[in-house]
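User: Can you fold this complex?
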Amino acid sequence: GAGVSQSPSNKVTEKGKDVELRCDPISGHTALYWYRQSLGQGLEFLIYFQGNSAPDKSGLPSDRFSAERTGGSVSTLTIQRTQQEDSAVYLCASSAGHLQAFFGQGTRLTVV
Amino acid sequence: AQSVTQPDIHITVSEGASLELRCNYSYGATPYLFWYVQSPGQGLQLLLKYFSGDTLVQGIKGFEAEFKRSQSSFNLRKPSVHWSDAAEYFCAVRPTSGTYKYIFGTGTRLKVLA
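Assistant: Here's the predicted assembly.
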């Protein structure tokens, strides 16, 4: 596609359930990022994939969060046993190496 | 520690007035610098970026930014604001080599009065 695509756009889940958020980066982009944006907050780095290198997971807030990137393309962010504080907009971005990152529209996650 | 500071959480300007949004960074070396804009319910759109060279960079929608190394600043400006500029603006930095992790400021929400 022409841009970074994220699905679903909105997700409401019950506390304690697992959720999966999907990101389709721009074709050919080797770098992929996940950020979290909480209400009134800036963008919090979660994880970064670059090509075949080991991902930079330094921003994942707990072991309930994990992400994978299959075939160097699509990425899935998984949150296990969701908590209310996980409610936020999760943004995915991709870039072609050193160039600027392009962001998707985000997935708004609400944990009730 | 690496950080980006946007000291103004909210700014209100009248349509047609000039605008300056402040951004200061703390980094070991001069990073790449970016300004992104986020309209309500939307993702982030790149306004402009600074990699090297001329310290005054032009972006989309009539925005420009000036990199001042001595002040570790990268302020965003627009000479005449339009109502459609109302949005949230984020300054970001990224190292020039190694990990390409972006560090964002907390954003400045711009309100435009008709």
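The two ends of chain B are 41 Å apart (CA to CA). The domain at 3-113 of chain B is CATH 2.60.40.10 (Immunoglobulin-like).
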